[in-house]
């Protein structure tokens, strides 16, 4: 979560404790939902008809500082107690360590509005599921500083990963890395052919490390370029979602095959190793001529009380025909998808304000 | 300035002369008190005491008793001088700081007296290095007037339990607050930093607690920047005794076992922070 944002949102719910983060440009959101069974004891407090369950946010660094050294934590800490004390304005974290030693941290918190991204995995055209290890081994080939990566589907069910190169970059000075994964490396592949998406690798890496460490398979839900990509991890007591905005593909309507270097490369034939040289030549000749559109933001809807019920479940976020969600779609696409013209000015307009309370 | 590379014959009269087969027995202890550039050395028949002070609030002493040395002789009742501790440590570790098993640096130390430099002869694997370090007039040392009869609260803990706590102290807090009490929380270390407050509680019946003699509830605050260097001594030690007197002066005594199993002591004395207020919850 710290790879996404600087603040940690804690939201106790009836279905568990949700820890969330959002990045500063509102183009990345992650949530970890720990079911009550994950805990030895889970008391979210009581919510009346007028009051909601108390939630707050704390500085990520302050929170992480308590769990600084994982190896020593594993050796010495028996259990951890988390108490939210609204009246004292303190989030209390108490670690019960060996030898009877108790470490109590009283963190200052800020009240906050509900942090919720609107997305719907059901409405995504493509879905991939792979063991985290497969993706981790693929991603290791890209430099740690790489900002964005493009995931694409090719013929024969192959999946490609390529580093995203800005179109202004000089072809002779950039290195392009592309790798292909066969369908059998994945646990399941249900993708729309010829689709691709470009998203922020740095934010994804954080989730990938977590998935690897917990040995959980990672599912990637994606759709058209510009629509968010959703990464999910599922376990009996944990549900993880990472939602990232993707670059929209402005030239998808244009005729010129070479204006967007990403979508028109031929997939390598099956005896790809032998044809490596001819493939490399093909890559070098494609050029990017379009202006890179700004990374689209997607709005975070803060539900008004009347609508809160409809948006409670993350999975059922997009019900066709419901006014709030149609609005979401047009807000999301309206600012960037103007056919034939490059993206809007780089000033990022905020598409949805936080409601008052901050 | 030419000088002989041979160590002086033992017939010559030196105010202080000492030999040590393994210089690490000295250097590791000196590192535990190395938070200022200069130190005052006092040599008596019982051994060597190296004192470092800061801000007129904190004093650290490293004791290396005569028995640790292979040879230790002091001609007068006591010999005292001020020296650069940084330079002394650099010389003692001139052959490197990594401790390969079986190799050690042998040391011979000679001091002719007032105004003379401290001479060090260091040998490892047949290579000899001679060092001459200038000495200065010793400073007046602080006297905390801390004696066992004035101790109000005393506990002895196994260092293992405190090491991590000290290494991870919230340095955004200006003070380290120490509470010692016959009642709960018994022994508590607290910090008040930017993120909030943190308390570390040690119960009196903990396995780490070797001795618990608290008669009165006392809460005192000490500048954390002054106490932080004591982490080095804590890391080397196996046990630590924590004592406070009626004025809130703090005494930390660390028992250190060297490579040969010999015992040495390092102690830290600290004044309480002047802006004392009631403990924050």
TrEMBL record, chain A:
<dbReference type="Pfam" id="PF04139">
    <property type="entry name" value="Rad9"/>
</dbReference>
<dbReference type="InterPro" id="IPR007268">
    <property type="entry name" value="Rad9/Ddc1"/>
</dbReference>
<dbReference type="GO" id="GO:0031573">
    <property type="term" value="P:mitotic intra-S DNA damage checkpoint signaling"/>
</dbReference>
<dbReference type="GO" id="GO:0071479">
    <property type="term" value="P:cellular response to ionizing radiation"/>
</dbReference>
<dbReference type="GO" id="GO:0008311">
    <property type="term" value="F:double-stranded DNA 3'-5' DNA exonuclease activity"/>
</dbReference>
<dbReference type="GO" id="GO:0006281">
    <property type="term" value="P:DNA repair"/>
</dbReference>
<dbReference type="GO" id="GO:0000076">
    <property type="term" value="P:DNA replication checkpoint signaling"/>
</dbReference>
<dbReference type="InterPro" id="IPR046938">
    <property type="entry name" value="DNA_clamp_sf"/>
</dbReference>
<keyword id="KW-0269">Exonuclease</keyword>
<protein>
    <recommendedName>
        <fullName>Cell cycle checkpoint control protein RAD9A</fullName>
        <ecNumber>3.1.11.2</ecNumber>
    </recommendedName>
</protein>
<feature type="region of interest" description="Disordered">
    <location>
        <begin position="250"/>
        <end position="358"/>
    </location>
</feature>
<keyword id="KW-0378">Hydrolase</keyword>
<dbReference type="GO" id="GO:0030896">
    <property type="term" value="C:checkpoint clamp complex"/>
</dbReference>
<keyword id="KW-0597">Phosphoprotein</keyword>
<keyword id="KW-0539">Nucleus</keyword>
<feature type="compositionally biased region" description="Polar residues">
    <location>
        <begin position="250"/>
        <end position="262"/>
    </location>
</feature>
<keyword id="KW-0540">Nuclease</keyword>
<dbReference type="InterPro" id="IPR026584">
    <property type="entry name" value="Rad9"/>
</dbReference>
<comment type="function">
    <text>Component of the 9-1-1 cell-cycle checkpoint response complex that plays a major role in DNA repair. The 9-1-1 complex is recruited to DNA lesion upon damage by the RAD17-replication factor C (RFC) clamp loader complex. Acts then as a sliding clamp platform on DNA for several proteins involved in long-patch base excision repair (LP-BER).</text>
</comment>
<keyword id="KW-0227">DNA damage</keyword>
<comment type="similarity">
    <text>Belongs to the rad9 family.</text>
</comment>
Automatic annotation (TrEMBL), chain B:
<dbReference type="InterPro" id="IPR003011">
    <property type="entry name" value="Cell_cycle_checkpoint_Rad1"/>
</dbReference>
<keyword id="KW-0227">DNA damage</keyword>
<comment type="subunit">
    <text>Component of the toroidal 9-1-1 (RAD9-RAD1-HUS1) complex, composed of RAD9A, RAD1 and HUS1. The 9-1-1 complex associates with LIG1, POLB, FEN1, RAD17, HDAC1, RPA1 and RPA2. The 9-1-1 complex associates with the RAD17-RFC complex. RAD1 interacts with POLB, FEN1, HUS1, HUS1B, RAD9A and RAD9B. Interacts with DNAJC7. Interacts with RHNO1; interaction is direct.</text>
</comment>
<dbReference type="GO" id="GO:0030896">
    <property type="term" value="C:checkpoint clamp complex"/>
</dbReference>
<dbReference type="GO" id="GO:0000077">
    <property type="term" value="P:DNA damage checkpoint signaling"/>
</dbReference>
<dbReference type="InterPro" id="IPR003021">
    <property type="entry name" value="Rad1_Rec1_Rad17"/>
</dbReference>
<dbReference type="GO" id="GO:0006281">
    <property type="term" value="P:DNA repair"/>
</dbReference>
<dbReference type="InterPro" id="IPR046938">
    <property type="entry name" value="DNA_clamp_sf"/>
</dbReference>
<comment type="similarity">
    <text>Belongs to the rad1 family.</text>
</comment>
<keyword id="KW-0234">DNA repair</keyword>
<dbReference type="Pfam" id="PF02144">
    <property type="entry name" value="Rad1"/>
</dbReference>
<protein>
    <recommendedName>
        <fullName>Cell cycle checkpoint protein RAD1</fullName>
    </recommendedName>
</protein>
<comment type="function">
    <text>Component of the 9-1-1 cell-cycle checkpoint response complex that plays a major role in DNA repair. The 9-1-1 complex is recruited to DNA lesion upon damage by the RAD17-replication factor C (RFC) clamp loader complex. Acts then as a sliding clamp platform on DNA for several proteins involved in long-patch base excision repair (LP-BER).</text>
</comment>
<keyword id="KW-0539">Nucleus</keyword>
